[in-house]
Design goal:
Blueprint (H helix, E strand, L loop, with lengths): L3 E8 L8 E3 L1 E5 L3 E2 L3 H4 L1 H5 L8 E5 H11 L12 E4 L10 E4 L2 E8 L4 H7 L4 H4 L5 E7 L1 E4 L3 E4 L3
Parallel strand pairs: 5-6
Antiparallel strand pairs: 1-2, 1-6, 1-11, 3-4, 3-10, 5-9, 7-8, 7-11, 8-9
């Protein structure tokens, strides 16, 4: 079993807008993070967009591997995921519930990189991030997320 840490929180008010770093944020069940593009982008919901993307997460270890193995030095904020974790094997949380402080999330699917992301950050990250781009998660129990919160699975 593992116990990890939430080391960064990022949101963007709309698609394509720069991400901003926060030390805490409110997570709302069935919606997303307060003020984030996934929580406020009604157009995607109206078009029948079905992916649950209340929250996206990526491992700090992935950022380190990009630098070490591919010589791509990119700040975590540029990878456009909401939460950056340390010590958490995110792929193992797909289909499982886990706690981030008092908030309960459920991993829904991998969050694979896209050409839009590669173009936006100006680095060839599609191949290096394949199956390492993080996960999407649904908010099961809302509350405040804070940098430094402990992350742990709810089941054994």
């Amino acid at each position: 079993m593992f116990q990890g840490t939430l080391i960064a929180i990022f949101t963007a008010p709309s698609s394509g807008e720069p991400m901003r770093a926060l030390d805490h944020i409110e997570a709302t069940v069935g919606c997303g993070l307060a003020g984030d593009r996934y929580a406020t982008d009604v157009a995607k919901h109206d078009r029948g967009y079905t992916k649950i993307r209340h929250v996206t997460l990526i491992e700090e270890e992935t950022v380190t591997a990009l630098r070490r193995d591919h010589e791509i030095d990119v700040a975590p904020i540029l990878l456009r995921r909401n939460l950056v974790t340390r010590g958490v094997p995110l792929a193992h949380l797909i289909g499982r519930r886990f706690r981030v402080g008092d908030v309960v999330l459920e991993g829904t699917e991998q969050c694979e990189p896209c050409q839009y992301l590669a173009d936006l950050i100006g680095h060839p990250v599609l191949k290096p991030l394949l199956h390492r781009g993080g996960i999407r998660a649904a908010i099961v129990t809302g509350g405040a997320l804070r940098v430094g919160a402990t992350i742990a699975p709810l089941d054994g």
